[in-house]
Write a structure and sequence with these properties.
The chain is α+β, with helices and mostly antiparallel strands and 67 residues long. It has one domain. The protein has three helices and three strands. It has helices at residues 11-18, 22-30, 49-58, and strands at residues 8-9, 38-41, 44-48. The protein has a three-stranded antiparallel beta sheet with strand order 1-3-2. Strand 2 and strand 3 form a beta hairpin. The protein starts with 7 loop residues before the first strand and ends in a 9-residue tail after the last helix.
């Protein structure tokens, strides 16, 4: 749920923040690996900063050793 202080981020802002391409973000969304955007119109979508922060918090840390 959105709170009054929750920022809506453009794809370019999300890509810059995560240091990945816009294409990568859209690919992750299609693969259900990243929060979907809020669709505001035909050519306007935004991500909630809180959704991205929560997604980052859930990411694994460090190197995993499979051996």
């Amino acid at each position: 749920m959105t709170s009054p202080s929750d920022n809506l981020m453009r794809i370019s802002e999300v890509a810059t923040w995560l240091n990945v391409s816009k294409t990568t973000i859209y690919k992750w969304v299609r693969e259900d690996r990243f929060p979907p955007p809020i669709i505001l119109g035909d050519h306007a979508s935004r991500w909630l900063e809180s959704d991205i922060t929560a997604w980052l918090t859930e990411r694994p840390r460090g190197v995993q050793d499979d051996s």
